[in-house]
Amino acid sequence: MMLIFLKTLHLITAIFFIGCVYFRTLIVPRIKPSLGTEKFGEVESLLAIHSRRFGNFNNALLLISGLCLYYLYFDSSAWLLHFKAFLGLLLVVLFYLAPFFVPPLTRSYAGFKSAFHRFLLGMMLLLVVLSQALFLL
């Protein structure tokens, strides 16, 4: 019963994390022409505050459930599981560290935030594919 709970929690929190990054990467930038640069900046700041607050809680649950599942499925020869766990851990670490390095880099390099979000989304899609590939081995 605990395994089903952990898998469900991990899946739901992963969907929320991926959905949030998808929304911030591919949907939000599309409203900029309608709002103008100044108003768009305000909207984006508000979205960032609320999505980060939710993300802090969601991604803590994602990390905890992922670590528990990793422990339960651990096999020293399961290289794909180790790689998937590494990518998942890297994604969560990048999420928590982003407030410290994304704003300064965005001030220096105009497209950094957008490129960072696309990079995260790409890593997330790779992680989903890897999680399905685990069932093939």
Automatic annotation (TrEMBL):
Keywords: Membrane, Transmembrane, Transmembrane helix. It comes from the Bacteria. The keyword Transmembrane applies. The chain crosses the membrane at residues 6-27, 54-73, 79-103, 115-135. This is Uncharacterized protein. It comes from Wolinella succinogenes (strain ATCC 29543 / DSM 1740 / CCUG 13145 / JCM 31913 / LMG 7466 / NCTC 11488 / FDC 602W). The lineage of its organism: Bacteria, Pseudomonadati, Campylobacterota, Epsilonproteobacteria, Campylobacterales.
